[in-house]
Amino acid sequence: MTDTAEQQPNPLAEGLLVRRVPDPCALVIFGASGDLTHKKLMPALYSLAFRHLLPLHFAIVGVARTEGDDDSWRAEMKEAVQQHGRDEFRQDVWDELAATMHYVATDFADEGGEGKLEELVERCDKENQLGGNRVYYLAVPPPAFPTIVKALGERRSTTGWTRLIVEKPFGHDLASARELNKLLWEHFAENEIFRIDHYLGKETVQNMLALRFANGVFEPIWNRQFIDHVQITVAESIGIEGRAGYYEQAGAMRDIFQNHLLQLLALTAMEPPIDFAADSVHSEKVKVLKALHTPGPKSVVRGQYGRGFIEGQEVPAYREEAGVAPNSMTETFVAAKLYVDNWRWADTPFYVRMGKRLARRETTIAIQFKRAPHPPFEETSAEGLRPNVLLVHVQPDEGVSLAIGAKVPGQGMTIRTVHMDFLYGGAFRTGMPEAYERLILDTMLGDGTLFTRSDEVEEQWLLVDSIVAGWQRDRPAFPNYAAGTWGPPSSEELLRRDGRSWRRH
Length: 505
Ligand code: BG6
Fold this sequence. Notes:
six-stranded parallel beta sheet; 20% strand; disordered N terminus
């Protein structure tokens, strides 16, 4: 084995066994000079190249309005990969990838704008024998969607397959999401549309399915009889990172609750699908989303951060961030109590919370089981004992831990809570792939399992619209939590009313 071969990652050893090699294709990225392309898409493509997972015949075409050419885009992307990539930067890997990359500066809103792109893609296709296969990635703000989708739809390649990846936000409410679905269906079939929710590409999120459906021990107790309640937390310590224009419109409700949070909940609560085909999984998730509701306006609280400290550094209030209105009523925190009205979950609360500028970055799903019905110990011996909790650490410190009661060594019978832990880092000696690696590869393979179907997105909006409608009536006194804390007091109150509390950190 040569030195280079030793250094190269082995997809088999890393558990990245690909079901089949993607067909030759061109990946066309709209929004090629944008943040997402810099921070996520190009680093993901580099990591796929690093592991030899890209098709042998392949071309990447970047499209944006910014002036530039192949060389300038390659140089810009090289820097992006060096800065944001998860793998070591290797010149030979980069050179091979860069040779597939082309750039076209064009505006689809201009007469003939799409002609320039078509010409370039056709040329790439002929030179590399791509068979007419295309993946179009819409990494542009939603107002640009209609022009692009229409132009692509009208100029579909007559050979090969075409797939369209649509980034979030998918609409602003139910009506706009329906509009967007209608527009997409005019030009593409549902199985050609890949709506991104990048949380579904995360390893630990997929592991929820493995945990539940590959283990005989959990499923029999995964219901209202044994589970007291579920807590889902999506906490971020970062602020809005210069995205005021978007975030002022979105808020935590549309940015996280409508998509990532509800998808985590759906995977936790869904029935076992008959198989892992995309439609089987989507159909089970959509049943959960249809059954989901909040018991009333008091069950949803919102917050907005004021000044505070994150890791010892003072940070400004949300209303002091550049581009944010000084009297903004946009929420940066939401906590809610939700119910899934079906046989499995009736009367079992799902408490969820998410927010910016919270004490630390943490995404967890905590399944709290009911207490043992009759502990045969003296009351004082079990004072340190908490109910069993199965905790899925989505990020960081990816893993799963089970809180159980154990006897403290020594005389007598004292019981304390301890944790049985599975940590990805320890069990699998491999770095975690980034969500976008999986999602780009799955699109090339035509596998839509980890994407969202139109009816899921619409059900998600239906719930959000019903909550947001109730918000028009009252104006909470914002800001109501300090940056670096766990949200407003009303969030604690939401659980206290039920005799419960958020999991201790
Ligand atoms: C995005 C949101 O969808 O997810 C961002 O728009 C958020 O506001 C991000 O920061 C969180 O993603 P991750 O993968 O860092 O948890």
